[in-house]
Amino acid sequence: MDETPMRARAVVDLAALRDNVRALRAAAPTAGLMTVVKSDGYGHGALPCARAAREAGAGWLGTATPQEALALRAAGDTGRLMCWLWTPGGPWREAIEADIDVSASGLWALREAVAAARACGRTARLQLKADTGLGRSGCQPADWPELVAAARAAEAEGTVRVTGLWSHFACADEPGHPSIEAQLTSFREMVAHAERAGLRPEVRHLANSPATLTLPASHFDLVRTGIATYGISPSPELGVPADFGLRPVMTLSASLASVKRVPGGHGVSYGHRYVTPGATTLALVPVGYADGIPRHASGTGPVLVAGKWRTIAGTVAMDQFVVDLGGDSAAEGDEAVLFGPGDRGEPTAEDWARAAGTIAYEIVTRVGSRVPRVYVGHSGGTGI
User: Fold this and answer.
1) Would the pLDDT of 350 be above 90?
2) Half-sphere exposure of residue 357, counting CA atoms within 13 Å on the CB side?
3) How many alpha carbons fall within 13 Å on the CB side of residue 349?
4) pLDDT surpassing 60 at residue 382
């Protein structure tokens, strides 16, 4: 690891990520695995995480936007790659020419993909998304026959090859929720209709991270794992990461910028929402909401300083927050660990999620670009 002093750092353990990918492959042994690296690899760094996932056997990568997928291609990835969040006028031609699987949730998207394929003289690899109950993107069951018929016609023309049929769960992190079985039933019916109409997809996929770990009936030909890849439990109510054979990949820490004694009755940070109960030592942690620290974790966010779990004292500012060390001592430059795997008694991303009233997905994804990522656990392979 680079030991150059830093204001803050997010250490990303690629060995842990590879182990997580292997654990997820083992959880769905009859299906292929897509590692989702959208949103810069959930804040961990898309390209290093994509390389590590490929090394661990991920046959597919997935992104939300076509720009994310094109960046992976530009970096040298040549494996199966899918992106799904399209808007009218998107870079269809560039994606088709880069052999990226694109997605259509409606006729407008299919038409734009067909036009781009004609323009570049290539056959588009296209996946059709069904809305089986999530209510976001995806084709409604009532409109599915029309979309399938149009896609079949495009196949006959040679402009499109339908490589996949897919959908996404709404409540897979709540095993037993009635929507799960309803979505499974809807997906099976929509796939059956498409196949009766003559489509022969390579992959049918529905399972996200929680479904991969808890719902074998949803595995079909491919599972898509996002947050679990990064060692965060997709369903904290069912277990911590270790219960699923996972290990958190990111550790976020900072170097104390100031340590000073103050008297009792001293206000701390904006609004004086914290006032020292007596003479004490305050330590300044030089990260704030511009770095992704939730401002709504003011007064609740946990941090390990001087060997003990502390709570943010007062309001999180743009670049910094304060912790009250009480009778303990520390020095400028000492480490403050915001979250990590928990091995050293430090908080986890899930602890931060509870403190901020959100989910751990948001905690890691929002860590800002001012915080350098430091990668450890390299395999030594060339990867992509």
Assistant:
1) yes
2) 6
3) 31
4) no
pLDDT of 383 reads 54
Q: Which of 260, 270, 274, 375 is catalytic?
A: 270
At 84, give phi and psi (nearest 5°).
-135, -10
* pLDDT band at 301; cut points 50, 70, 90: very high
Q: Which of 38, 289, 361, 375 is catalytic?
A: 38
SS (H, E, C) 161-172: EEEEEECCCCCC
Contact (Cβ atoms closer than 8 angstroms) between residue 131 and residue 108: no
Q: Cβ(306)–Cβ(334) under 8 Å?
A: yes
334 in Cβ contact with 325 (< 8 Å): no
Q: What is the mean pLDDT of the chain?
A: 96
DSSP tag of 79: S
Helix pair angle (46-55, 14-27), 10° resolution: 50
DSSP 25-49: HHHSTTSEEEEE-HHHHHTT-HHHH
Helices (H) and strands (E) in the chain, counts: 11, 19
Q: Quick check: pTM over 0.85? A: yes
Which one, of 93, 81, 95, 90, lies nearest residue 53 by Cα?
Answer: 81
**pLDDT at 62 (0 to 100):** 98
- The answer, yes or no, to whether residue 384 has pLDDT greater than 70, is no
Alpha-carbon dihedral of residues 72, 73, 79, 84, nearest 10 degrees? 70
Distance CA 46, CA 63 (A): 9
Closest to 244 (Cα-Cα) out of 217, 221, 212: 212
Q: Is 270 a catalytic residue?
A: yes
pLDDT in the model for residue 69: 98
DSSP sequence for 206-219? ---HHHHHH-GGG-
* Measured distance CA(48)–CA(372) in Å, rounded: 13
Over the stretch 29-44, which tens digit does the pLDDT of each residue have?
999 999 999 999 999 9
Q: If DSSP codes are grouped into helix, strand and coil, which group holds residue 144?
A: helix
Q: Which pLDDT score, from 0 to 100, does residue 124 have? A: 98
Query: For residue 1, what pLDDT is reported?
Result: 45
Is 308 catalytic? The answer is: no
